Amino acid sequence: MFLKFIFIISLSGPAHGQSAEFHGSATVQFLETMQHSQHIKLIQPLHFTDSGGDTWTTEANQVIPLNLLTDEIRLTRPLPSPFEYLKTMILFHGQVEGGRSDWRRTQAIIYEALIAEGMQEHWAKMIYAAVRAEGWRWEPLESSCFAMCHASSPSLRWRPLPDYEQLRHTLDWILVEFPSLPEIDERVEALITHTGPHIFGQ
User: Fold this and answer.
1) Is residue 1 domain-resident?
2) N or C: which end of the chain has fewer CB within 10 A?
3) Do the domain assignments include residue 181?
4) What domain count does the chain have?
5) CB of 22 closer than 8 Å to CB of 116
6) How far apart are CA 7 and CA 23, in angstroms?
7) Residue 182 sits in which domain range?
8) Could you tell me the pTM of the whole model?
9) CA atoms of 183 and 39, how far apart (whole Å)
């Protein structure tokens, strides 16, 4: 079974006075196959310029899962629908699949990407915290790690394992206390129980 349709999202212009912004339009093809259930295929490249002036590109023809958070979070907290931050999902998963950027920098721009997409600040901070706690991490393809240890591997990526009860409490805390991003980072770092299998600094 194969279902598809084309969906175009306008991405032009900054939001809420932020310097970070998406550019152009995103055209995606929704996929529903045995191999790719609830995935999208990006028809045209998507560009995002962060607040530091760096441009992040998700190349066309990438197949991307239609989610950013795991069920442990999506099914237990009333967060916005993934369709409300579809561009941010494309941005993040595009970097995961590309495997050339640093995962720390990629996770760090999630908040401003959500704001640029029009997300309210408290929702953006909650989604940002969840991505920091459970989002994909990876070793860049051009790193010495690949050259020395994983030259035959197409990619090296993993998810950390957070204490989900503490993560849910943290999301509630963000909603009530409205902390700063550094405060969120500090709290999230403390609730990760297993950073992953990689032997180098994470």
Assistant:
1) no
2) N
3) yes
4) 1
5) yes
6) 16
7) 6-146+157-194
8) 0.83
9) 33
Is 101 domain-assigned? yes
- Residue 200 located in a structural domain: no
The answer to whether the beta carbons of residues 111 and 174 sit under 8 Å apart is no
Could you read off the pLDDT tens digit of each residue along the chain, which spans 202 residues? 444 445 555 444 444 444 899 997 778 998 887 776 789 999 999 999 999 999 999 999 999 998 889 888 988 888 999 889 999 999 999 998 887 788 999 999 999 999 999 999 999 999 999 999 999 988 876 655 555 555 555 557 888 999 999 999 999 999 999 999 999 999 999 999 988 765 444 4
